[in-house]
């Protein structure tokens, strides 16, 4: 799979994910060295959403701290795997999810979005990212759409 094909799959998948889950503001994918693989943000944002400047400001902040943060986590905790981590800010939730051994996905959501209700969708999204990275994703057997999940009694 060529790099251009992967980028198109990533962009289509990220767009579908943001459109399927109301309240997700932006997604960034990094490799393990902290280099940006791809990014996508909601085009039309609510009055409380991030504007283009804020998205780029957040991206710049994460880009500058991502590599040292990953090195610190790996050296202090002697782990090769990140798993998932969530942070809260005054206005947003920030979700880091490991995408296999080669990448990490960063998802920014609105603060009022309940994290426990979207984590299953986040993990499904990241699994599709891993398959694209590993070149095991096949559109004959899989889709870039994010299905509606029936979780619990809802």
TrEMBL record:
Q: Which Gene3D superfamilies match?
A: Dynein light chain 2a, cytoplasmic
- Span of domain Roadblock/LAMTOR2: 11-109
Q: Kindly provide the name given to this protein in its UniProt entry.
A: Roadblock/LAMTOR2 domain-containing protein
* Record organism: marine sediment metagenome
Source species taxonomy: unclassified sequences, metagenomes, ecological metagenomes
